[in-house]
Every structure is written in C-alpha cells, then in structure tokens.
Amino acid sequence: MSATLLLSLLPLLLLGGALGFLGGLFGIGGGIIAIPLLVTVYGMDQAMAQGTALVMMVPNLLAAWWRYMRRNPVDLGGAVRLALVGTATTYGAAQLAQGLDQHVLRLLFSAFLAVLAVGMFRRRPEAGPATPVRSGLMPLVGLAGGGSMGLLGVGGGLVATPLLSRWFGLDQRVAQSLALALVLPCSAAALASYARAGNVDWTIGGVLGVGGLACVSAGVALAHAFPEKVMRHLFAGLLIATALAMLAV
C-alpha cells in the first residue's frame, strides 16, 4: 500500500476507530454520528450516507454484541423476540417514513430522547446483571427501537437501552447487550435493502468498519470498568447531546 493511499485512508480509519470505540462503550451502531459526517464532509446524499454507514455498523455491532454477551449473558429467547419485533417494525416504519416530514420527526425524536435522558438520571433501585426480563412486555421495546430506526435510520440502541435500563430494571451493560441484539438484525436487513438500491459506498464503509473493529473491544472493556451508575449517567449525557445535535440539523 502506497504512502499516499494510506494517508488518504487515515482519516476514515481514525473516524471508524472513534465510532467503534463509542459503539462498544454505549452499545450503539454509531450511525447517528457517521451519517451527518458522510453527508457534510464526503458530499454524499442522505440515502448513500445511511447505506455506507451501515457497512461500518453491521460488523461493529456484531463484535460489540459478542463481547457484551461474553461478559453479561442475556436471555436469548427475549433477545430473539426483541430482534424479530424490531426488524419487522423497522421495515414498516421505513415505508411510513416516505411520506412524513423528516424535520418534524427529528423534533419529536429529540424531545423523546430528552425525556429518556431525564428518566435515566432519576434514582431507581440498583439492578443486578441477572435481573430477569419481563418477556411479555419486551416487544414494546422492539416497537420503539425499530420504529426509530425505520423512521430516521438511526437511534434504535439509543431508544432501547434507556427503556430496558429504567423500566425493566436491567443493569446498564445488560440493557446495552439486549439493545445490540435489537439493532444488529435491523441494521443487516437495512444494509441489504440499501445495497440492492445501489446506495452503498463499499470502500468508504469498509475502511470505517476496519477502524471500528480495531477499537470496539476497548469501548466494551471501558463500559465494564465504570460503575453501573456512571454508565447510566454517561448514556443519559449521550442522549442529551444527540437530541441537541438533531435539533441543529
């Protein structure tokens, strides 16, 4: 590989590494950050940016989920139900989104994230890593997370994690593991759809993915080094920052 080519790829590798680290730390795909950067810096249209970001997200989500599962095994039955409902809802919401005002959707989503953030800052009984999941209500989380991904293309993990942590009483790391189980199949299905439509830059997405895979494990390790309360508050801060960023778009 020539030095010129390496230098041209270095910014993408560094960006991918940062997104992979954040994805591992918070159990998210990173699309909420990658997509606007691909639009503004690389001049992609929205559809191409979303498809390209998914190339990075799918392997990073898989790696992060595997790492979380090794540290915090979860109920696979609940995870599968969550994933199935989320994937189906993502598809349906994506069809609905075609006729909706994206600016209004972003305003509503920002307000919803702010409400979730406030809930995460409120005190609640401490949760243990083995807290059982009330599986009968689990599809509601899939509906919320899948609906977000379908309507906006991002935010499934951002929505699912605080719901699982606050309302299901799960440890923050367990909630992030289950959120990854929701987002991973939704993202894979979305990638296949974007690829069929030709809205994917495999080179840029692949380089971002390589950078992300190199750093995702470090993010997961740091997530488990922090106390659970600290992780909840950090995630709440991420929700607020995301809400403000979406309002600025």
From TrEMBL:
Similarity comment text for this entry: Belongs to the 4-toluene sulfonate uptake permease (TSUP) (TC 2.A.102) family.
One Pfam entry name = TauE
Membrane disposition = Multi-pass membrane protein
Mitochondrion as a keyword?
Answer: no
TM ranges are 47-66, 78-97, 103-121, 133-154, 174-195, 202-224, 230-248
Q: Which GO terms describe its cellular component?
A: plasma membrane
Q: Which domain of life is it from?
A: Bacteria
* Name of the protein described by the UniProt record: Probable membrane transporter protein
Q: Which UniProt keywords apply?
A: Cell membrane, Membrane, Transmembrane, Transmembrane helix
The answer to whether keyword Mitochondrion applies is no
Q: Cellular location of this protein?
A: Cell membrane; Membrane
